[in-house]
Amino acid sequence: ATGMVTIDPGYKNTGSCESAITFLDGEKGILRYRGYSIEELAEKADFLEVAYLLIFGELPNKAQLEKFYDDITEESQVDEEMKKILDGFPKSAHPMGVLSSLTSALVAFNPSTVDVSSDEAMYNSIVRILGKFPVLVAWTMRKKMGLPLDYGDDNLGYVENIHKMMFKKPTKDYVKNPIVIDALDKLLILHADHEQNCSTSTVRITGSSHAGLFVSLAAGVSALWGPLHGGANQAVLEMLEAIKEDGGDTKKYMAKAKDKNDPFRLMGFGHRVYKNFDPRAKIIKKAADQVLGDLGVEDPILDIAKGLEKEALEDQYFVERKLYPNVDFYSGIIYRAMGIPVDMFTVMFALGRLPGWIAQWREMRLRKEPIGRPRQIYIGENHRPFVPLDKR
Ligand code: SDX
């Protein structure tokens, strides 16, 4: 007898919480952060402003934004001992595994961040991770490229400083070259939150046991790594590369994607909630054209992507399943044009999603949500007596 329990695989029809952070309408392709449309925020706000909005609920005024960035900058040093942990990884380690481990290891050097019983303590753990996570992101990239680590330049803006820690471009370049920073800022905003997706639900349920913010985020990084979730942006580029190697034969990959016996899926397509165009994909597709144009980058992969999209949008199998390009379909093309290695794409997704994870974790703690503990329907063996070893 299963009593009151009903099973809902993947929680497709289960609401896990009430939240005031992000609203999305899958049918109409609407996405809003704290009531502001993603289209407006991507155009008119910058990433740190959106981080403040998601976490604290309001767009910051000038003084609030300046104090926020000063407090984050104060906390942007990472303990030198952490480099020993980074050194322990082989260069071949996937950056998402390195990032998740380093995020978890941070607690050892910031033990006070586990207790968030006061507003100040919670605020302090939030500015600490907003200051240190970008350093860890840059370190994972520099490690895999065998390049020296760097703490960046506090005179730069938040996203500029991240770019500098990753690429170590001369500081003067950032004044001349806003294209890349503007595109990166927009991409990070578009990834910043997405209500109760897999990795955010992971952050919430981990934090619901009152495990600290940092380890809850490390759990979110791990969940995001999967190719069905954030890992899709890397898988999209690998798929497009394979199609290019195959002479641009998109039909073969479309057939594979529709073949029930073939586990291959068209990466960057489909979504649990959006049964229409993912509004983020629309903006990123436009940005891809713009950035590659501005950078003078001719990338045949972009043409293959557009061809594949066109085919899929006209294909019966995809149309009847309402499969459209999602946030991951075009983002990797821009990261590649920026010189970001393909196995760093999901790390960039994690960087963008950081404020959303923090906002959702904070809301869960402030609302004193109970520890997450679902039930099950037992389908195993009935009661049976133990069998001694010599009788088996
Ligand atoms: C992200 O949740 C979020 O908000 C996530 C995210 C965020 O911002 O946090 O938006 C970010 O993760 C975007 C999604 C990135 N993943 C991919 O691009 C991987 C490819 N997409 C699929 O694996 C899939 O579409 C999911 C995982 C995104 C959604 O899966 P669902 O909702 O569980 O849907 P499903 O697997 O039940 O598929 C429904 C049908 C199936 O066919 P039938 O069994 O009904 O015949 O559609 C088919 C699937 O086989 N299908 C696909 C497909 N996606 C679904 N067939 C081919 N190619 C695909 N991409």
Automatic annotation (TrEMBL):
Q: Does the keyword Acyltransferase apply?
A: yes
Task: Supply the Gene3D superfamilies for this chain.
Answer: 2.20.28.60, Citrate Synthase, domain 1, Cytochrome P450-Terp, domain 2
Which reaction equations make up its catalytic activity?
A: oxaloacetate + acetyl-CoA + H2O = citrate + CoA + H(+)
Q: Which SUPFAM superfamilies match?
A: Citrate synthase
GO MF, any single term: citrate synthase activity
Q: In which pathway does it act?
A: Carbohydrate metabolism; tricarboxylic acid cycle; isocitrate from oxaloacetate: step 1/2
Note whether Acyltransferase occurs among the keywords: yes
What keywords are annotated for this sequence in UniProt? Acyltransferase, Transferase, Tricarboxylic acid cycle
Return the similarity comment: Belongs to the citrate synthase family.
Name of the featured protein: Citrate synthase
The opening ranks of the lineage are: Bacteria, Pseudomonadati, Bacteroidota, Flavobacteriia, Flavobacteriales
